[in-house]
Every structure is written in C-alpha cells, then in structure tokens.
C-alpha cells in the first residue's frame, strides 16, 4: 500500500494515483496537510508558513525556518 512522502501515513492506491505530483511523489495527504497546502505543494509553490496541529487539536500557523 502506498504512503505519503511527507508524513509516511498510508493512503489508498486510488488516492496515490490521483494525487501524486508529476515527479511521482505524494507531497501531502489528509493526515498531514490542509487542502490549501496540498495545492501549493502540487503547484511547486513554497509557503512561508506551515499549518501545525498540536496534540490538543489546536491549529496554528508557524513561520518556516
């Protein structure tokens, strides 16, 4: 079964086939990124901020290093 190249979470064969980039890598999945982040990654656009979800379920924006 394929997995996300970003977080390592398993994804379905269909999800991988449809969502992988032109380079064959899956840059994000529902477990590790929000839809806007996945679209930016697929387009090859780097974001200055990353969305992080704490263990408490709080979503935050963190500036990339």
Number of helices, where a helix is a run of at least 4 consecutive DSSP H or I residues: 2
Largest β sheet strand count, sense and barrel closure:
2 strands, antiparallel
Q: Widest sheet: strand order?
A: 1-2
Head-to-tail CA distance between termini: 32 Å
**Percent helix range:** 10-25%
The total of beta strands comes to 2
* Mass-distribution shape: flat
Order of helices and strands: HHEE
Could you give a short description of this structure?
It is built from 2 helices and 2 strands; from the N terminus they run H-H-E-E.
Can you tag this structure with a few keywords?
single chain, 65 residues, alpha+beta, 15% strand, flat
Question: Can you walk through the features of this model?
Answer:
This protein is an alpha+beta fold and 65 residues long. It contains 2 helices and 2 strands, in the order ααββ. It has a two-stranded antiparallel sheet. The longest helix is centred in the middle third of the chain and has 9 residues, at 35-43. The model has no long low-confidence stretch (mean pLDDT 81).
